[in-house]
Amino acid sequence: MRFPLYSSPHGIQENHVTRLMAQVLLALVPGIIASWWFFGWGVLIQIAIATLTAVGAEIAIIRMRKRDALPVIKDLSAVVTAVLFALAIPPFLPWWMTVAGVLFGIIIVKQLYGGLGYNPFNPAMAAYVFLLISFPVEMTRWNAPLELVTADPGLLASLSIIFTSVMPEGLSWDAITMATPLDEMRTRLEMGEMIYEIREIPGWGDFGGIGREQVAFWFMVGGIFMLWRKVISWHIPLSMIAAMFILSSATWLAEPDVNPVPVFHIIGGGFMLGAFFIATDPVSAATTKKGQIIYGALIGILIYIIRNWGGYPDAVAFAVLLMNMAAPTIDYYTQPKVYGQAEEEDEQKKVTSDEN
Amino acid sequence: MSSQDDLDKLLTKLHNFHGGLHLPEHKQESLQHPIADAGLPQQLVIPLRQHIGRAAKATVKAGDKVLKGERIAEAEGAISAPVHAPTSGTVKAIEVHAIPHPAALPDTCIVIEPDGNDQWTEKPAAILDYLSASPDILLQRIHNSGIVGMGGAAFPSHAKLLYGLKRNLHTLIINGAECEPYITCDDILMQERADDIVTGIEIILHLLGLERCLIGIEDNKPDAIAAMQQAIKVTSLKRTRVIEIPTIYPSGGEKQLIQLMTGEEVPSDGLPADIGMVCHNVGTMAAVRDAVLDGRPLISRIVTISGEGISEPRNLHALIGTPISHLIQAAGGYTDKARQLVYGGPMMGISLPDDQVPLTKGGNCVLALSENEAPDPEKARACIRCGKCADVCPVKLLPQQLYWYSHAKDFDKVQDYNLFDCIECGCCTHVCPSNIQLVHYFRFAKTEIWKQEEEKRKADHARRRHEARTARLERIAAERKSRLRKKKEDLEQKKPAAGKADAGDPKKAAIEAAMKRVADKKKAAQEKQQ
Ligand code: SF4
Ligand code: SF4
């Protein structure tokens, strides 16, 4: 009887990329439902456009390389990228911009670098920044939470806005869009208003904007699910949240009139989505545990800095991309102490101190 | 670490090692029956290299009659072990035969055809008063009995003890962890022969001049723990303790076991003896006892036969050299689920191409695994840097970085990331979601680096030889030159002596010299013509 030869270990392998990615997608579901509830059909339409584009683009480029596309598609990483990207953009963004963004992310940022595992930058965030720079107006035109507007564009109207850029009868951009809380806070603070004044205007919930704070909450729930399933570890999200909390608490305690409560920053903009789903993208993040804490904390700090002093109201994408660049260096300097090497170092120290 | 009462502190306070895995145990399957005898096969194939170090040298030749326990190969060098005939019979051949080898490479073996009488040679006398015997005598007996580590690595025991004796030891560590799934040979040995193991421990403690001994057993073996505790009670061993360690793979790795029980780390490029400890397996202790008290060399061992591909998984007492096929028959043969044959445990064992290889001294387990238990590995994907491998690595390496640089064949970088600290436990491969055979890459990188070093050594050697040759030639040339120069100088010294006489007239001297040169030339020309 002949048996096949394999290298040890010989058991079942516990994890699988596809399963990991599927769990990420599952963890996104509560946040997606909340986004749909508060911001309408545009959210789901964007997800559909982005996913189809991403999968199509990936198949095309792998076919071009004359390789079998199915195993690559099956890892679901393109779908995760597409969904994260779709959740980061305004729901009524014209369809072709979404397509352009996804193509940029999948083809240039991911596949041209060699595909999943070789991309130094997070494709969803790179695509977001690419669009933000190319189409600043459209990329910052957010529709208001449905609770705050009288006109609710249904599924058909949403489709028509996205695909034809034509407002259906009786609707106007003014009627459905509104500055985001982060934007609002920024412009009004710049105009010299005080926090308590700003919070008088309609659209504010308990900590941030109505709708947005709920969506952030449900993304956090998904994040906790991933922590529980060990899809991600706590290091990046926790250090990112902690850094942001400490910074914003410090300024808030010093000058509460011109600084929003710390929670505002944490649930504002894409912070929660970023902390649990984007900064934790393993491919482009730091990989050592110590490194991940530094990486997460620096992203938190960068977001705070850019939000307060930079040119853009939200900064998750920029902060993540900047830190993507730093990740290899962070990894290099945060290697864990290998078993049996502590004594050696101590001895070396002893030797050198003896010499001194 | 030398205070008297630290032992019981150790009992209450266990330490941890980083990472590790909780694996499905699969231990019960082979524990359904007591140890059975595997019986005498038709042929025994005894490899000369069954241990780490140099192969033994055969002392018999084809056609020789040998008796059971007779030495058939002697140790070569300091790290080696002799080999003995497992039964009486005739040496059929000394030839290259398939053996359990990671790369399925064959090696020289002594093939014995048993005569069925199982007749013993004259055994060395029992050392009954082992507690007053000199360490040298005990060491000699252990060496002559061909004892090697029986937990798998098969390092010659006397060499380990000898190294330990030269160090400042304080603790004997006995490894009864048996952390790999399926394997139960140590478990069942502890259950059935605890007294003998403890006698072996007494011998080794005396040999090393030690009192303190820690026996590590995973807490999934309550019967073995109880048996060992009972066996210690009836001895005079005051400072020997059984320590129940958590069931987490690889708790039975020498370095991990030490860390678990004492919290200390063996230096990365050192041995346990460097921190005052020496570690032996429970099976080795029983073998030591047999050698000292019965004069019985290491010619048999207990081996677990298990997996869904085996009809009656169980533990067998088998002669070294028994073909695996015979062992599998003794365990009821294959089921039709058998798809993969593994020598050793599922995590670190080696894959066998067929069952025509012999059992060796370090062989603790043979597994016939089903599709279910060991599916064909999936095609590897790119590393997504998820860090799961680093989370479980007991050595705290970064397997993802090791992989990256092994893949890129950047062997300097891979050593910067401490490749050689990898114990090849397989935890990283087990959890990798991209199904990368990480350990395989690490083994590849290690072999490549060794090869390069070997080549470099050879090249260095060649270069040195070349340099030596050039130097010799240059020296000869230089010597010749200097001889010539000397001659010339001698000549010239004579000349000035002649010249000095008419030093007063340099012109005259010059003319004379010129005339002489012309005359010389003429003379030379005439000589040439002749
Ligand atoms: S577990 Fe596999 S995929 Fe994850 S970092 Fe390690 S090698 Fe890469
Ligand atoms: S095989 Fe090596 S790198 Fe992998 S977990 Fe074990 S020690 Fe770490």
Automatic annotation (TrEMBL), chain A:
Family of the protein in this entry: Belongs to the NqrB/RnfD family.
Keyword annotations from UniProtKB, A to Z: Cell inner membrane, Cell membrane, Electron transport, Flavoprotein, FMN, Membrane, Phosphoprotein, Translocase, Transmembrane, Transmembrane helix, Transport
EC number, as in UniProt: 7.-.-.-
The species this protein was found in: Solemya velum gill symbiont
Pfam families associated with the record: NQR2_RnfD_RnfE
Transport is among the record's keywords: yes
Membrane-spanning parts: 44-62, 69-89, 234-254, 260-280, 292-309
Cofactor: FMN
Subunit and partners: The complex is composed of six subunits: RnfA, RnfB, RnfC, RnfD, RnfE and RnfG.
Gene behind this protein: rnfD1
GO CC term (a single one): plasma membrane
Protein name from the UniProt record: Ion-translocating oxidoreductase complex subunit D
Positions bearing FMN phosphoryl threonine: 180
NCBIfam families noted in UniProt: PRK00816.1 (NF002011), rnfD (TIGR01946)
Function noted in UniProt: Part of a membrane-bound complex that couples electron transfer with translocation of ions across the membrane.
Membrane topology: Multi-pass membrane protein
Automatic annotation (TrEMBL), chain B:
Broad class of where this protein is predominantly found: membrane
EC number, UniProt record: 7.-.-.-
Pfam family membership, one: SLBB
Keyword Glycosyltransferase appears in the UniProt entry: no
Top-level taxon of origin: Bacteria
Location in or out of the cell: Cell inner membrane
GO biological process: electron transport chain
Cofactor dependency: [4Fe-4S] cluster
Keyword rRNA-binding assigned: no
Region (Disordered): 475-530
Gene3D superfamilies: 3.30.70.20, NADH-ubiquinone oxidoreductase 51kDa subunit
Domain 4Fe-4S ferredoxin-type, chain residue ranges per copy: 373-403, 413-441
Residues holding [4Fe-4S] cluster 2: 393, 422, 425, 428
Keywords from the named record: 4Fe-4S, Cell inner membrane, Cell membrane, Electron transport, Iron, Iron-sulfur, Membrane, Metal-binding, Repeat, Translocase, Transport
PANTHER family linked to this entry: ION-TRANSLOCATING OXIDOREDUCTASE COMPLEX SUBUNIT C
Family: Belongs to the 4Fe4S bacterial-type ferredoxin family. RnfC subfamily.
Protein's name in the database: Ion-translocating oxidoreductase complex subunit C
Organism: Solemya velum gill symbiont
Gene from which this protein is expressed: rnfC1
